[in-house]
Predict the structure.
Amino acid sequence: MLDVFYSTQLRTMFVQIAVPPLPEPLWYSVPELFLSNVSLGAQVEVPLGSRKEIGYIVLIQDKVDLTYEVKEILSEPIRCFKDIWLLEWISKYYCEPISKVLDTAAPKIIPIKKSKWIYKEAGANTNNDKLSNLLSKLPQKASQLKSKATLKEALNLGLCRSVEVEDIPVNAQVPDWVKRDLELNEYQIKAVERIESGGTFLLFGATGSGKTEVYIELAKKTIKAGRGVLFLVPEIALTPQLIDRVRGRLDCEIALLHSGLSPKLRYYGWRLCLEGKSKVAIGARSAIFAPIDDIGLIIVDEEHDSSYKQSDGLRYNARDLAHVLAKKHKATLVLGSATPSLESYSQVKEIITLPPQSTKHLMLRSSLIDLSKERDKASSHISSSLKKEIDSVLAKKEQILILYNRRGFASYLLCSECNKPVSCPNCSVTLTFYKRKNIVQCHYCNHTGLAPQFCCGKALKECGAGTERILEEVEELFPNANVAKLDRESVKTMDEYREILEKVRSQKIDILVGTQMIAKGHDLPNVTLVGVLNCDIGLHMPDFRASEKTFQLLLQAGGRAGRDEKPGKVIFQTFTPNHPAIKSALKRDYTSFAQDELKTRKELGYPPYKKILRILAQSENQSEGLTLLSEIAQIINTLSGITVLGPAPCPIEKIKKHYRFHILCKADKSTELIVMVNTLKKTKWKKSIKVFFDIDPQDML
């Protein structure tokens, strides 16, 4: 028979606490001192064995039936969420413990420091020299005043007053380039009117069509109606420009939520939402968890971007969660893109198309250079035709973007004698060579070392290329031009990112070389030429989305040219000119590409026609993961309605000294995969093997 423990206190409360990484919540009691602050999702310190841990309240009850005496929580609960229903939904859908979901979603709580400030009272005056001298220095922080005795006397006499003020961040000024007022064109007005009716919409806006202005107008109307706005962007790199444009148009407090902020700034943005001081939150993937009151509008900009999917830990997709959140709040959901994901394009019923605002952008010219037929290149990676175009654009004092979607100077270093590349000791990949730092580096485990010079007594060859090498070639070809680079090596902070973009806007940079970072969402009016040096990068990856991702990148990159009244041009250099993705990108024909690709997906049984699950096993022992996945595949094959591909080595078989194998499961419904995962998770396997279940995967590497 179960013993029943009741507190002898007049007011009794018990809470279930999810303590990461424990899979199951634990019961604790609440001392009377903390009763008034208890709420679902609140963060609290609890005893766990001989140590103290941080946990989150997931259930509140007046009494519990247990066979053991419940320990008390140790700290006052700090409110983190207004409601945890979304986190519970995520836990069930992605088959992860609620503790893991809460740990991912909750910000690091940083107590906001308070300073005592002293202010002179109106009309205060005195003949006392010391007090008069003190009053002349006000207002200032009390801690800075040297004579506390004099200060106390002034306070007692009513000559000044003290106020405790929170040290809160100060918003930066809105840049001059941001337009404060803007009239919508007829297409934008119609789009706003249609979206105002409510529902889920795909804003299929051609590059330069003014999707952001539609977003902001909808946000203004939503705020006026007293409801909240959640604005998601795929990458932190896109937030500075967007934030500036939104702040320039909306007269309200805006909460910023992304991992590029310091913990203090991030928690400050979270608090603005939690306390109801901000009705608008802008951020990357994790902003989906923002505790905004009564959400009326959710905007997912560049909805096609795979960055919305978390690739490790809790593998959630913020774009997909936006659908769940909108349904719960009865909010309007707007998915915006010039190159929509095939899932959204085929499943969202309401599609609104915006044409480019500029008539010049309608005349954007696209041309293709077949590198297999190119004999007289201007440099190793720049064709003579592209060089002529760049010369012409520079002569007109216009700007150029050069896209090469690889970092470093060379993809790898190779010995000409033994034909062995310099490889990572921890991963089955070559090390990228960085010439300016003279280092080699792994982009998966971050292994770094000085670049070797010789192997077998001979100098190593530099093979492949990256943005660093392209930068060098551009500088040699155009010595009078101001050239800069934008990739994850050259930009480490948001301020550095802003600085480069501002130099482009102010025309201090003539040619900007970069990875896909330069292709996303930037509005740079004087850029009239975009050159994509190798369209084939990524095209032949072992991923059923390879063609889609390549097409999207090419179209997005080309869209950076001719955004103002000056006509633009995009030049694609490729070894595979007849590939459907490249041919469609050349014509800027999304519809034909989507229809052909959807037909192929349907024939092969891939999303959006099937739901998929990737199961990945990794171990330091090469055979363990493969053996386990073979057993799992046999179990799944006995289930009706689920198709299994594999097991097979991952395209990158070894990362961080762990060998990796995977299987892909297909089903008609997510529920079939969820039931299967929950069943498999009850099975015990060797501790030396780590198994990951990725529902709706975006990454196949």
User: Anything to note?
Assistant: The chain is about 30% helix and 25% strand.
